[in-house]
Amino acid sequence: MNRGGRFAVAKPLSAAIVLFAHGSRSREWAQPFEQLAAALARKTRQPVKLAFLELMQPPLAEAIAALVAEGATAIRVVPVFLGTGAHVAQDLPRLVERARTNHPRVAITLEPPIGEQPAVIDAIAAAIIRPGGRASS
Predict the structure, then answer these.
(1) Which member of 26, 44, 52, 62 lies 3.0 to 4.6 Å from 56 by CB, making a disulfide possible if both were Cys?
(2) d(CA 72, CA 23)
(3) SS3 at position 79
């Protein structure tokens, strides 16, 4: 209880999302990821940051540190990869573990690559089938 006989209410967890992508030398390459981050932030009303493995900024550690500085106490790291390759299977877990060590009071979870989720596979197939994106037969 605090002064006045009222119970102190715990501050709710401040959730945030990091979209983790490979990176490229081409600035245009990042545009779809930026659009995805903006759409996700609008839909979830959570802070969303992009992070990159290489060639682009910010790296994962900086994106997570920025979210923590903004008050995030729970961060989901979502690899924006179509599947699990060496970067997702080996490099990313090491980076996430380092972030957990650097921010021990923050719940940092690592999700499977977005491209392995059935809804994403179905959406890609639908986009290929529809006019303007027809698959050749």
Answers:
(1) 52
(2) 24
(3) strand
Look at residue 24 and tell me if it is in a domain: yes
H or E element that contains 85: none
The verdict on residue 110 lying in a domain is yes
Number of domains in the chain: 1
Residue 10, CB-side half-sphere exposure with 13 Å CA sphere: 4
On whether residue 3 sits in a domain, the answer given is no
Query: Which range marks the domain in which residue 90 is found?
Result: 13-129
- 87 catalytic? Reply is no
Catalytic-labelled residue, pool 15, 22, 40, 73: 22
pLDDT tens per residue across span 76-85 = 999 999 999 9
For residue 86, being part of any structural domain is answered with yes
The 10s digit of each residue's pLDDT in 14-41 is: 999 999 999 999 999 999 999 999 999 9
Task: Tell me the percentage of the chain whose pLDDT exceeds 90.
Answer: 85
* Cβ neighbours, 10 Å, residue 19: 21
Of 50, 115, 131, which Cα lies nearest the Cα of 83?
115
